[in-house]
Design a protein that fits this description.
The chain is built from 12 helices and 28 strands. With 464 residues, the protein is α+β, with helices and mostly antiparallel strands. Helix 2 (41-52) packs across helix 3 and helix 9 (262-276) crosses helix 10 (306-318). It is elongated, with a radius of gyration of 46 Å.
């Protein structure tokens, strides 16, 4: 009797369980780690889709002929993934009374999603990609030589390895559908399918021959050194040395070489002179007093010998002798950079009636002086000059005077720095009414020291 009741109750529980889980998974079913009991197949598929998310899509890497690799996410190009079909199959497998076996510990399943492809959408999206719209095949493409902004003349060849976009898109779609992770459009097999070149015509061949001449013309390089600055002659500079006809087109000789316009090299040397010559330019100078003064004029500075430099540059170009060059100068300062005065110089502050001598940036001489007589109009001029002559025991001569001095350093014409033993005092306002004829009068003991240490060529800055 008891066994019969137990059997009846067991049958009732099984029947009720079958009714309760009619449209859902029965007890003891696990799919990809999700406990499915009491869930419909749709709910389970939704959980799996949500849990997998973007991880079910592996990027497809497409290599183009230029060597670039472009990563594509399949879900962005008409590909979807769903676990519904796999879940439905497991659901059917566990219907009826097969679930009774799950009492021993349940059933666990591992499933993969099913992929679906919207090829029309995939092709449409791929067609929009920039890199699949570059260098497309066009039978009208040709070869041309153009002037660029930074690299002189360049060859633009639009005939080689042009992309057959439709074929490339078809190949990429096949790769996505077949779940390939890498698609190489540049492989020998795929290159034949996805790229095509246009045969060179006679006109194109003539352009290519002229390009060889231009390329050789633009191969010349020269780097001019100006102290801490430099000027580089490269293809962008050399391109402007080609002779042009009345229509602005390059003139070629019988061997398809561009004809050189020598006047343009001469013009370039004139540009170097205008840019880097410093004789007479306005300079800003930081005085010992702390003030910043502007001085222009004078004989000190760098001045390129344009005739010699033109001859050198023309010869170097004609012989294809590239290299590095310090130009020849007709006037030459101690320094070649933007600051051609450097840190060794004589400073004469005529407003303060004081003179200083700096050697390698260190103050060596510091003395009062007397400069040109202001009341008589003999003011010492403000300019940047240099010590160009030195002599001991010289007689200074001028109208109505002949004055012997022990030390003479000429700096600008007949103006120089010298001792003045006839003076008892220096500095102050003496120069206003009892100044020199324009020279810089200096105490004898200072002048004797200065004469020995200041070299010819030393910059001299005169200012008020």
């Amino acid at each position: 009797m008891i066994l019969a009741v137990a059997a009846f109750l067991a049958a009732a529980v099984i029947a009720l369980n079958e009714i309760y889980y009619k449209d859902t998974f029965p007890m003891g079913v696990w799919i990809n780690g999700i406990y499915c009991t009491g869930m419909t197949p749709g709910e389970v598929a939704g959980c799996l889709d949500s849990a997998a998310g973007e991880n079910v899509f592996q990027s497809v890497n497409v290599r183009t002929l230029d060597g670039k690799v472009h990563a594509l996410r399949p879900d962005e190009y008409g590909t979807t993934a769903s676990y519904r079909t796999a879940v439905e199959a497991i659901y059917k497998e566990n219907k009826g009374y097969s679930w009774l076996a799950n009492f021993t510990g349940g059933k666990g399943y591992r499933v993969e999603p099913e992929y679906h492809y919207d090829l029309a959408l995939m092709k449409s999206k791929l067609m929009e990609l920039d890199w699949l719209n570059e260098r497309l095949y066009n039978p009208q493409n040709s070869v041309s030589i153009v002037k660029s902004a930074l690299a002189g003349y360049i060859l633009v060849d639009e005939t080689r390895d042009l992309l057959l976009r439709d074929d490339a898109v078809e190949l990429i779609c096949d790769g996505i559908v077949n779940q390939l992770t890498d698609i190489d459009l540049s492989s020998d097999e795929n290159k034949i399918r996805c790229y095509q070149s246009i045969p060179y015509t006679d006109e194109m061949k003539d352009t290519l021959a002229k390009w060889q001449g231009i390329e050789a013309f633009q191969r010349f390089r020269m780097t001019y050194l100006f102290g801490d600055r430099q000027e580089v002659i490269d293809e962008n500079v050399v391109a402007d040395w080609m002779a042009l006809d009345e229509n602005g087109q390059i003139v070629f000789d019988d061997n398809n070489r561009p004809v050189l316009d020598e006047s343009l090299i001469e013009e370039y040397v004139a540009y170097l002179s205008a840019t880097y010559d410093t004789v007479g330019i306005e300079r800003e100078f930081q005085a010992t007093s702390g003030k910043c003064v502007k001085i222009s004029g004078g004989s000190y500075g760098n001045a390129i010998d344009t005739e010699k430099e033109f001859a050198f540059l023309l010869d170097a170009f004609l012989n294809g002798e590239s290299g590095t060059r310090v130009p020849e100068y007709r006037l030459e300062a101690w320094e070649k950079g933007a600051d051609d005065i450097g840190d060794t110089y004589v400073e004469v502050d005529m407003g303060e009636q004081h003179m200083y001598y700096y050697k390698d940036g260190a103050l060596v001489i510091d003395t009062p002086v007397v400069t040109g007589n202001h009341s008589r109009g003999w003011d010492t001029p403000a300019k940047v000059c240099h010590v160009y002559f030195k002599q001991k025991n010289r007689v200074l001569r001028g109208r109505n005077y002949a004055t012997p001095v022990k030390y003479w350093m000429a700096v600008d014409g007949n103006i120089g720095i010298h001792d003045a033993t006839w003076r008892k005092e220096f500095g102050g306002d003496i120069y206003l009414t009892d100044g020199s004829h324009g020279c810089i009068n200096t105490p004898l003991e200072i002048m004797s020291e200065m004469y020995d240490i200041v070299e010819k060529g030393t910059p001299v800055i005169l200012f008020y």
